[in-house]
Amino acid sequence: MMSHLLVYIMVTIFVAMSYTPEPKPVPLPLHFIAPGASTNSGALASHPLHAFWNLHLVEGALWNRLQHLKDRENNPILRDNTTGGRGPATESTSMHGNDGSPSCKPDHLWASHLPDFNTMPEQMKYFVLSMHCRNYTLLMNQPDLCKGQDTKADAPLLFMAIKSQVGNFENRQAIRETWGRTGWVQEEAGVERWQVRTVFLLGRQDITTGPHPDLEALLQLESSLHKDILQWDFRDTFFNLTLKDVLFWDWLSVHCPQAHFIFKGDDDVFVRTGALLDYLNGQYTPLQGTTKKVRDDFLVGDVITNAWPSRQPTAKYYIPESFYKGVYPAYAGGGGVVYSAALARRLRAVSQWVSLFPIDDVYMGMCLQRLGVSPSDHPGFFTFDLPEANRDKPCAYRKVLLVHKRSPKEMLTLWRDLKAPLAEC
Ligand SMILES: *[C@@H]1O[C@H](CO)[C@@H](O)[C@H](O)[C@H]1NC(C)=O
Ligand SMILES: *[C@@H]1O[C@H](CO)[C@@H](O)[C@H](O)[C@H]1NC(C)=O
Ligand SMILES: *[C@@H]1O[C@H](CO)[C@@H](O)[C@H](O)[C@H]1NC(C)=O
C-alpha cells in the first residue's frame, strides 16, 4: 500500500518537473490525410516539410528557364482547364514581350539571354538564333507512301525513318538494296511476311561550310525514281537533327497513321530487319479474342542513363552551361531506336511543350520523361559496334538487331553473308 503511494508521488513529481509552461508550436501531424482516405491506414504519405513545387525559375541556363515556363503552363493541376485544348503559349511571349508570333527569322533577342553568346561555337549560336522555329516547309513529300494500306493486314508493321543528308546517295542506295527494302519482308525465324516502308529524312544541303557541288537536281531525280525522300527547308546540320524528329512526327500523323512500329536511325547503321520483325511481332499485347494492341509506351534501343552534357568547347556535343544545366534524362542512342506508332503520337503531342534541344536523342529523352515513359534497353542494339575481332564473323551477328557503323559497301557484304542460315552457329 505504502509502496504504491510512493510510486504515485514520484510519478506526480516527475510529471510536474517535466512540464514546461512555455507554449510550444503545435507540431504538424505526422501524416497528411487526404480527404476520403481511411484513417487507420498505416501507409499514408508523410506530411511535406516544404512546398513540393519549385516556385523559382532555374537560375542561369536558358533552356532550363524556357522549359520551366512551359512545364508550368502545361501542368494539368495548375493549368486552368476551362479553355480546353489550348496550345502552348510561345516562350517569346513571356521572354520577349512581343506579340509572340513564331516567325522563323533569326531572333537576336535570344543571344541577349546568354552572357557568353559571342564566345560560343558557331553551331550553338545558329541553334540559339533559330530555336523558336519548328514549322519548316516540306520541299519533297511522299504523300502516297502508305496509300491503299489501310486494312489491318496491309498496314506497315515497320516504318523506317532514316536520317540522311543530300550527299549520301550511296548510303541510301545500299540501304534500299539491303535492310531498308520497301514492300513485303519475311521474318527471319518465322514464315510470315510483313509490310515495311522506308523514307529518308533530309534537310537542305548545308552550304555555309564552304563550296559544295549543287546536288539538288540529282536529288530530284532520285526522289522521282524511288519515292522515298522527305526533305524540309532547313539547313541540314548536326544541331538541327531534332527538327527531323518533330517534323517527322507531324508527317506520320497525316500520311501514315496506320503504321504499327517506327524505326528511326542513321544511314550508316546496319539493321537485321528480319530479326527485328520477329521481335516486334512478339510485342503486341493480346486483347480479348484475336485482337492485338501495340503498347503506347514501347521504345527500345541502346539506353544511356545519367549522362552529363559535354562541357568541352571543342567537342561535337558541347553544350555550354549557360544553355543547359543538369543531367540528361535517360535516352536511347540516336544511331537507331524502335518505338510504337502509338508512342509517336504521344511524343508529337508532348513535344509541343518541350523546347527544342540541339541533340536529337537527348531531346527525345526529354519528351519521354514528360510522358512518364522509360526507354527500355535492348542488348541487340550495338551503337558502339561489336568487338573488333568479331566483326567479320557472320555468327557474331546472331543476336544483333542493329550495329553502328557500316559503310555502304560493308552493308552489301554483310547482307549477302547473313543471307546464309545462321543456324550452324
Ligand atoms: C479538362 O478538359 C478536358 C478536355 O476539354 C476534359 O475532357 C476534362 O474532363 C476536363 N477536366 C476537368 C477536371 O474539368
Ligand atoms: C512559321 O509560322 C509563322 C507563324 O505562322 C510564320 O510567320 C513563319 O513564316 C512560318 N515559317 C515557315 C518557315 O513556314
Ligand atoms: C537550322 O536551320 C535553320 C533554317 O535553315 C537555320 O536558320 C539555322 O541556322 C539552322 N541551325 C543550325 C544549328 O544549323
Automatic annotation (TrEMBL):
Keywords: Glycoprotein, Glycosyltransferase, Golgi apparatus, Manganese, Membrane, Signal, Signal-anchor, Transferase, Transmembrane, Transmembrane helix. It comes from the Eukaryota. GO terms for biological process: poly-N-acetyllactosamine biosynthetic process; protein O-linked glycosylation. Its main location: Golgi. It is found in: Golgi apparatus membrane. It comes from Hemibagrus guttatus. This is Hexosyltransferase. Its EC number is 2.4.1.-. Residues 74-104 are annotated as: Disordered. PANTHER family: BETA-1,3-N-ACETYLGLUCOSAMINYLTRANSFERASE (PTHR11214), HEXOSYLTRANSFERASE (PTHR11214:SF234). Its cofactor is Mn(2+). Residues 1-18 form the signal peptide. GO terms for molecular function: N-acetyllactosaminide beta-1,3-N-acetylglucosaminyltransferase activity.
